[in-house]
Design a protein that fits this description.
single chain, about 0% strand, mainly alpha, AhpD-like, about 180 residues
Amino acid sequence: MNLETLKTALPDYAKDLKLNLGTLSNETSLNDQQKWGTFLACAFATGEAKTIHALVGETMDRLSPEAQKAAKAAASIMAMNNVYYRFTHLVHNEVYRTTPAKLRMSVIGAPGVPKPDFELYCMAVSAVNGCGACMDAHEEELRKAGFTTEQIQASVRIGAVVNAVSRTLAAEAAVS
């Protein structure tokens, strides 16, 4: 599977998603590792099989094995962190914000790709998972690394579309 088969799998009512996939696959504000790593990380974050298979196929020759692993690691670590830090952000008892998380997160320090690229993957996955605290933290790190508003927004646009595609395919599978 690849991006074209993913677009073909979408129902007619999701034409906007098909068009957005095409537009985002041609995004030029991000380099290929940043763009395709973000696509792959967001696919894994959604957990939807067709989306994952299509984007694994699409990125197989576009990303190094290290970048593929880093994208998957971003989805994995953010699945944990987005829940934990969303909790600390939303709960009214502020003691949780100052208490050590006591969760292992070593991949963030050594992701196997340049740290800013990994931060970009984490930013998009955090948007998919809806963690404002994590989005703020990753946006700050991306700004420090010199990323522009356009680049950060591009990563979140990728996350939004991949999420919508996966939800659409899951909903269609549920009624089939």
